[in-house]
Every structure is written in structure tokens, then in C-alpha cells.
């Protein structure tokens, strides 16, 4: 998902268009549950500078993703174009909908399969990736899905580990895949950009999308899977530019 926001208070530090920055900043407190106090959540982000007078474009990655997923797209859009509801001027949701995710996505099986893999310490990165790919192929037939999950395999202090917190994901996956009912709506412009070959947004989701986002536009990118920006980057950037213009 990405948002065109009216206000995004991050340090600009006088960076040039091709000078990314890595930092961690506190963001808005998470919602309290069970009577516990809200607490700040550290946000790891990469900043590509643009015109200080223009609203920033904010990319938010999804489940199993990280901030590097949109590197190429973000750089290209920064060159080409130069969170509360009241802060968001317009919104783009990329192949996701505000309803509970379909059970057919099999995410619990993906996590279980990943956690069951034992990688020898002496393995090289290439052999580790090959081993994981072979193990996951029994559960995940999609090559692109396996390649995406493999981006989370990293080496730390001579041992292979997973960038994502698998224990936390397994414990809270039902909450992550759910979308709680909300009576309020977002009245700003919204674009739902869908992958033509994806099953993440179903026709049965459209009524709830239009209820929550009365000004929503639906646009489908043919021949794209869930990773629209990766499968069809030019079509993705053209849709974003047209919507933000």
C-alpha cells in the first residue's frame, strides 16, 4: 500500500534525489488492547528526497515484506514526480482490500513450512537458498512466492535466520489477516490497483471497499500477480502518476 499524504514529519536533511537515508523514528502509538497503555512503534524507513513543498509519497509494505521491496519504484517515481485520515490527501491500495483475507492464501502453512526448515551453519548463502527453495516447493508451488519469501533469509553472525519474526507472525496471524469492522469512511480519493492474476481482492469485496471508500476507483493491471509493482513496473508507475496528477 502507498499513500499520498498531506503531512509526514520526517527529517529531510538536505538530501539529493539519489541519496537515500536509513533511520528509525517513533511513529504514532499503537492502539491499546486489554487495558494496556499505547506505546510508540519504531519505524525503519528509507528516505528519498524531493521537493520540500510537495506532499510526500509514502510506501507501506505488506506481510513478509520489507522497505526494500519498493526501492526501484520509489527511486523512479521520485525522479519523475519531483496517519490519520485527516492527514491523508489520497490513498492507493495495491491488490489488497479492507476485509478479512481469503483463507485460500495459506499463510499459516507458509509460516509452518519455513519454521520447520533446518539450515546447516556451514552452508553458503546460495546453498542455503537452494535448500529452502526445495523444502518450500512441497508446500508453495508458486516460484515467485518462494523467491519473495527467500528475500527474508539473511545471515547474522555466521548463522542463517529469518528477517521476519516468525513466532510473532504465527501467534498473531489471525489478527493480521483480519480487518475489523469500521463504521467511519474515508472521503478522499482512493485507487485500488489490482493484479489481474491475483486472488487477493475478490468481487465480493467490492461493496465493502465502496462503503468505506465512497470515491474509490478500481483499476486492474493485466498479467500481474499480487506483486503488481514487480510484475509490471511501468504499468504500476503509470497508474500511480495518473492518479496523483
TrEMBL record:
Keywords: Hydrolase. This is sn-1-specific diacylglycerol lipase ABHD11. GO terms for cellular component: mitochondrion. Belongs to the AB hydrolase superfamily. PANTHER family: PROTEIN ABHD11. Residues 18-41 are annotated as: Disordered. It comes from the Eukaryota. It catalyses: a 1,3-diacyl-sn-glycerol + H2O = a 1-acyl-sn-glycerol + a fatty acid + H(+); a 1,2-diacyl-sn-glycerol + H2O = a 2-acylglycerol + a fatty acid + H(+); 1-octadecanoyl-2-(9Z-octadecenoyl)-sn-glycerol + H2O = 2-(9Z-octadecenoyl)-glycerol + octadecanoate + H(+); 1-octadecanoyl-2-(4Z,7Z,10Z,13Z,16Z,19Z-docosahexaenoyl)-sn-glycerol + H2O = 2-(4Z,7Z,10Z,13Z,16Z,19Z-docosahexaenoyl)-glycerol + octadecanoate + H(+). One of its GO terms (molecular function) is carboxylic ester hydrolase activity. Pfam families: Abhydrolase_6 (PF12697). InterPro entries: AB_hydrolase_1 (IPR000073), AB_hydrolase_fold (IPR029058). Residues 56-238 form the AB hydrolase-1 domain. Its EC number is 3.1.1.116.
